[in-house]
Design a protein that fits this description.
This is Mitochondrial metalloendopeptidase OMA1. By secondary structure, this protein is mostly helical. It is 56% helix and 6% strand.
């Protein structure tokens, strides 16, 4: 009887046993970084003679001449130099400059052309303001179709607003309308060619609580009856009407439209920049408009108002009105302004306003007064002056009916 022996249990070999049967290898040291310029081939030296074998000496002399240092001297002309083996091309590519792309050249050309065209457009539209001799940028001629169309649109819109407010334009036979027309007839001959060539239309609006007056391009004059209560004399009324005529004579309306061109370009550029840096169009537009108004728009508007004060003062002096009445009129306007502030109105500082303060206006008029009085003396005011003085005395007595004038 045979006994079957149980076979031995096989165990998986351990890692140590596997590694012990592998041939022993020395770890390979980490190779240093490869140099950019490989070293030249070194000859094999003989230990017995101390000289390289003849075959290596010949190769060494052929590749590296003895009279040249391979690291300091150029070998671009030596066909047997070691640097001819893919080294010159690498050095040339490493030292090469990037090529100019057509996009960069096109962008610079566009910027240069646009800048040059903008400068030519600006300097070709510079002109001198009459009377004040100020140089300004103005695109629109006084009688241009653009100004006429804008003035016509403003006129129609104003009539609609007045009708909505219930305001009424006084008829031509009304004493207040007659008085305004009489003063205008004396001022227009001294407004220069630009004023004399226009067809003036006078509209007196029955608004006792509104002291205002303005002139649209083309000669449409709007006077609110509230300002007639402050201008008690014809000379004081000539201060207001002369100021408004001066705006038209100086072409301030077209100048403001010309300034809007640069303003719109600035706002458009700011909107594009806001889109790039992640600012919303409303915030960018509000910021740009505020910056333009404070730094450029309001100061330029105050300059135009001061210019109209000067031109109007000289005009009324040549028309034989008393320029000293201008000081009293703006003093009355200052009193009205203080009363409005006391009633809860907003006291707008001058730097945030489109008009100079009444105090500064009075100061400027006093500085111009010697010149204005000299112009009045040079005019033939003997007959006109006596008539105006008689009218003022009768007006103070309250016994004047101006309808017949």
């Amino acid at each position: 009887m045979f006994l079957l022996r149980r076979p031995p249990r096989l165990r998986p070999p351990s890692a140590s046993r596997i590694l012990s049967h592998l041939p022993h290898q020395k770890p390979t040291p980490t190779s240093p970084s490869r140099p950019i310029f490989p070293p030249p081939p070194q000859p094999r030296w003989s230990s017995s003679t101390g000289k390289p074998p003849p075959e290596d000496e010949e190769i060494h002399q052929r590749i590296i001449p003895h009279n040249r240092n391979p690291y300091t001297q150029s070998s671009s002309r030596n066909p047997y130099s070691y640097r001819t083996y893919n080294n010159d091309h690498y050095i040339r590519l490493q030292a090469a400059k990037p090529l100019r792309g057509p996009s960069k050249i096109t962008t610079r050309a566009v910027i240069l052309i646009a800048t040059t065209a903008g400068l030519l457009f600006y300097f070709s539209n510079l002109e001198t303001v009459p009377v004040s001799n100020r140089t300004r940028f103005n695109v629109y001629a006084p009688n241009s179709s653009t100004l006429q169309s804008v003035a016509e649109m403003s006129y129609k819109r104003l009539l609609i607003e007045l009708e909505d407010q219930g305001a009424r334009i006084l008829p031509e036979w009304d004493p207040r309308t007659v008085r305004v027309r009489r003063v205008m007839q004396r001022l227009i001959p001294f407004s220069g060619n630009m004023g004399a060539d226009q067809d003036w239309e006078i509209f007196v609006i029955n608004a006792p609580n509104q002291a205002n007056a303005f002139v649209l391009p083309g000669g449409k004059v709007f006077v609110f009856s509230g300002i007639l209560n402050l201008a008690r004399s014809d000379s004081a009324l000539a201060t207001v009407l002369g100021h408004e005529i001066a705006h038209n004579v100086a072409g301030h309306f077209g100048e403001r439209l010309s300034q809007d061109i640069g303003k719109n370009i600035f706002l458009f550029s700011l909107l594009l920049l806001g889109g790039v840096i992640g600012i919303g169009p409303l915030i960018a537009g509000w910021f740009g408009t505020s910056v333009i108004d404070v730094t450029f728009g309001n100061p330029m508007s105050r300059l135009q108002e001061t210019e109209a004060d000067y031109i109007g003062l000289m005009m009324m002096s040549e028309a034989c009105f008393d320029p000293r009445e201008a000081v009293g009129f703006w003093g009355a306007m200052e009193t009205v302004g203080r009363r409005e502030v006391e009633r809860g109105g907003v006291d707008v500082p001058e730097w945030a306003s489109t008009h100079p303060s009444n105090a500064n206006r009075i100061k400027k008029i006093q500085e111009w007064m010697p010149e204005a009085m000299r112009k009045r003396a040079e005019s033939d005011c003997s007959t006109t002056g006596s008539t105006a003085e008689a009218f003022l005395r009768a007006l103070e007595r309250g016994g004047v009916i101006v309808m017949g004038w």
